[in-house]
Amino acid sequence: MNSWFTSLPDKVLDNKVLKRLGRYFKLDLRYFIQNYFYLASAQVVTLGCGLLLSVAFARLLPKETFGQYSFIFAILAMATITTLPGMGTAIVQAVARGYDRVFIEGTKKRFKWSILGVAALLAIGTYYFLTGSILLGKCFIAASLLFPLAQNFETYNSFLAGKKLFGKSARYRIVVQLVSVTATLLVVYFTRNLILIVIATLVSTSLLRGYYFLVTAKSIHSQSNDETAISFGKHLSLMDVFGRIVTEADRVIVGILLGFANLAVYSIARTIPRGLQTFESPIARLALPKLAELSKEKAYSAVRKRYLYLVLFAAVASGILIVISPYVVTFLYTQKYEASILYMQILLVGLVFSIPTQIFNKALFPAQAEVGKLYRFRLIRPSVRLVLLVTLGLKLGLLGIVLAVVLTDLFSMVYALKLAGFSRVVE
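User: That's the sequence. What structure does it adopt?
Assistant: Structure tokens below.
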């Protein structure tokens, strides 16, 4: 099975039709199809695991507990701003240019800065503990101790992407997902204990990512370092601080203002749309090292010619899922979560805007080190999102939160096109 996974049959990749299509689109289709297969396989497993976990939570746990779990991991996602998340992109870019040592030095920087995240999570846990929410307090305190290990070791994926070893990266991701979800499901089934569920998720993730980090670190041959890459990683992280906080603000706002039961309904509604949004990541990850090798003019030209194909792909996927979502929700989550159907359908519309936009945010601008454009996009986009979440959420409740997310995706697409000078694409 390993040999089948790590290389698609040559008769599939080397046929005449693909070669002609490659010449027509001026793309290395062998590179994109083979490596997209690897990365998409990992994303399919991730989506499947996320669905399985949400189904288990919906069927085995009360809405309140499900909502609390979602709330905790939304806060943890916000705390990742202290781990210099932009360092991953910087590592990909540097490793693609032969500076392998950036992988180690970048990871060290992430661990150093993540101490701030530990302190923040401890403070949140202490607050809930002292204000009477003992269960949430204990969960946050436990999570703070495992937070750096669970987050920082994932840089091995960036190193492998820089080396274009997408098959190996996909295998590692799949194993981490399967083990983590299995551990979490077992604890959910046998204990129904929220603290143990949180610990099981973080411990299993930490152990696997730590192991793969050590394995990857041993494969480094070049000790060349690039301090400018470390600096670029810090810049990317700094410009992403506000964005990462606001990205998870929807769940936090719902949990605080509308209650954990409503958060459970919203979490179901966003499961499939957010899962499908992750398919933008393989496209961007494949494009990043390729675009980094091109001149600015050629990189922009390459994206301009292919952007509308991404829009078409997202529109088709979104349309199909909008039609079948009522049957999917009631089948997987029972009638208890019937209220999630409309919210899911609205969020699926946002995929038409959000998936294509990431070719700019996660590939084109980072590959060309367009720091100014990245700063503007990653500051203005979350600002618009936050204003819409608060104003529409207060006026329309859960429906307002959903509409705010979709309107932000539409704005992001238009703004990214404007920054790239592609405004005539949407005229």
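The mean pLDDT is 84.
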